[in-house]
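Document type: protein sequence-to-structure record

Subject area: structural biology

Format: plain text, a pair of labelled lines:
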Amino acid sequence: MFDTLLIANRGEIACRVAATARRLGIRTVAVYSDADANARHVAACDVAVHIGGPEPRASYLRADAILQAARDTGAQAIHPGYGFLSENEAFAQAATDAGIAFVGPPASAIAAMGSKSAAKSLMEKAGVPLVPGYHGDNQDPQFLKTQADAIGYPVLIKASAGGGGKGMRVVESSGAFLDALASCQREAASSFGDDRVLIERYLQKPRHIEIQVFADTQGNCVYLFERDCSVQRRHQKVIEEAPAPGMTEERRRAMGEAAVAAARAVGYVGAGTVEFIAEPDGRFYFMEMNTRLQVEHPVTEMITGHDLVEWQLRVAAGQPLPARQEDLRIEGHAIEARIYAENPEKGFLPSIGTLAYLGLPAHTAFANGDIRVDGGVRMGDTITPFYDPMIAKLIVRGADRDQARARMLQALAQTQAVGVQTNVAFLSRLMRDSAFAAADLDTGLIERQRETLLPAPQPAGADALALASAAVLARQGLAQPGATTQASADPWAARDGWRLGGQYRRELQWVDNGETRRVAIARHGKDWTLDAGDGPQPFLWRAQANAGGAFGLRVTLGGHESAGTVALHADRAYVFTDAGSHALELYDPLAHSQDTQGEHGGGLTAPMPGKIISIAVKAGDTVEKGQPLLVMEAMKMEHTISAPADGKVAEVFYAIGDQVTEGAELVAIE
């Protein structure tokens, strides 16, 4: 086994690899960019080496800097994680040429499977069924459009060298093809340095099922069963589970054996995933092979009991696979939810900011347990525009799918973040969704269930207002009589709202989704009341201060008891309960007395930091509602800014190539 391992990645996967390496007694080396100098993965490793600027191309995609770091630190092996250089055959070959073990397949296997087009041609020769499409080298736009017209719409344009939903578009009609192709090619070139694409028929109601394969240098190859990754948004996975609901033993064996055959065809070594797309009748088609560890590998670990990173390291060190096919068993059911800093209500746009508060359920970290959290950030860390906005992976297991789903709901209720928007509430609704609960899964589930998964915001109830108000009182040091741990004989020293010859009264104004909600609090003798709009009711509270300006609270309002966590940040209270969460702004009339309406009421603003890569209008142009105005690039994804209404462009404030900050006015429309 190796003495020293360099981890050529960042965030959650770097921490994940470091955890297994530490358990095996292997010294670890982290690499980091300017943006990651204080990142969690740096602290998780024994040694850290700076490799460049915050942009991936200036750091984590610099093969030369990473190889030099390996030489300087005496690393005998490099683990690439996923993303970045993990599927770069030139990097794998350069590491091998330098005498450093690459924890992954040989460069030849990466080359064979790294191009979706080449991989499909290889599978076609091997007799593996393929979705009708064009996977050739001719990338002329008009030729590709002709191919799409012949396949029939809708078609899927997909970056040949990519993954993660980048460089991918569904095209519904011939007239929309060329614009979608240009956007895919730009995104693919930005993300992967390769703008080639392939075209496929877009299947209706398909499931995305993948097979985990593993091979060693002794010629052994096994499959560790399947994962269902059908629940996706923007072609990126949101929920993964294992085993796949409804999978029969016969189909599992057929798909597993096909995946092993695909791996053997390219002389595969290490961990890989063969991805299939399956139709409702059970027919399946080869989609692609990811020549690396997958983000969702923990669900496989949960149902098999094996540490896949340990398997990777042992295979890379020349050892045989730790188990044979007949030794592998499925036990229970596991579900993984990806916790992202993003806003589901705004098209799942990434959210940038500092995690002022982060609360997680009791869990194991990077190791199997009923609730497991694999995370790459901590409270106080910043989600930047340079990298993927994933906060953590929440993984649960149960004896069966129903128990796993119930456990996931409990864990999500205890997952709380302040400082960025998150998808936690959306994931909770997804777990409760009738289609998901019934395992009626396909890649269009989220869009199909959009009304229930993305409902209009609901006003905070009286219990949420009471919890937020109790947190404000607790922050000010107020306590109810008898609630303090140290009683004082001096009434003047008591901080419980007592007044000589009078009553304690306080009115709080909470802004809830633009609506002002008034809460009146009063003390009468030793009794407290709270009026949230339905008249004064008896009010009791107990508060426990937590880290990050948060309070664990239990309140009783009019005989009804509720509990939750409230994080106070700036002028906002973030209320988290089992029923959901609410963000309430504490309105100060004096502070807002000079507020005036902004000068640019008809302006369009940037939803996040990014770069302007395309502008379709100029001052004086007449535009219609929904018409694309410009395209921004952020976090390697393109985001189109469209006109909210009919009007005339008064001014365009930026040019192509300009960097813009979140909230910057981009276009003024009259």
Notes: The first strand starts at residue 4 and ends at 7. Residues 190 and 636 are 7 Å apart (CA to CA). The longest helix spans residues 249-265.
